[in-house]
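Hi F.,

I've been meaning to write this up properly since the lab meeting, where we talked about keeping a consistent format for the predictions we share between groups. The idea is simple: the sequence comes first, exactly as it goes in, then the structure tokens exactly as they come out, then a line or two of notes. No screenshots and no reformatting. I'm using this chain as the first example so we have something concrete to point to.
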Amino acid sequence: MEDEELTEAAEQLVKTLTPGDLDHTLSRITVAAVEVLPQVEYASITVKHSDGRLETVAPTDDVLWGVDAAQYELQQGPCYDAATDTVHVISPDLGNDERFPKYAATALAVGIRAQAGLRLFDAPRSQGALNLYSTTVGSFEDLGSLGRLFAHQSALAIGYAQEVDNLQAALRTRRTIGQAIGILMERYSLTDQRAFAFLTRLSQHGNVKLNRIAEQFVAEAQTKGGEGADQHR
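Output, unedited:
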């Protein structure tokens, strides 16, 4: 592919992969794959979790639920290999690909003739691959530079989304701990420092994370508040 075409594709990707949370980002990636990459008719993402479980997310067509599930069950196919082993896997002609004899029958039965799997990310607790599907034999033979560019841009978007999710989780944790400290201050007439120290001791003695202890106090207070409201009706 020419440099000018790559530049144009990169610009389109930047516009398409708008910042957002992880679910939004994964959905935009599969939609963008169909819009930007040549010969792609369907797309999905496979996530391999730390326990080895494989999960399909953000498919652009319902037919992919069964297609992806067959690859996981058979432990065979481009999307399975890209998520678990090889970085990029391209199969322009599934019907004659000796690597995937069992899976090919499932793909051909629903009209899929060519497929590619592109590794998107390798996180400490998960791995992910983009799955591209076409009904035309010979598709993806020239995916090359554009495929690598798309995977790179998508990985950047996923990294940003994960940071956003982590930040949002941290803010929620901080807010919950603050609520728990307020409850303890009111209940036992403690200063904020003594209330925080009390939560910390409970966490250490029970070997339970501080945010979990805080969540318990907040949930208990909300339950009692609800019961009190019911009694005054």
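Notes:
DSSP finds eight helices and five strands in the chain.
The beta strands are 42-49, 54-57, 88-91, 114-123, 126-134.

If this format works for you, I'll send the rest the same way.

G.
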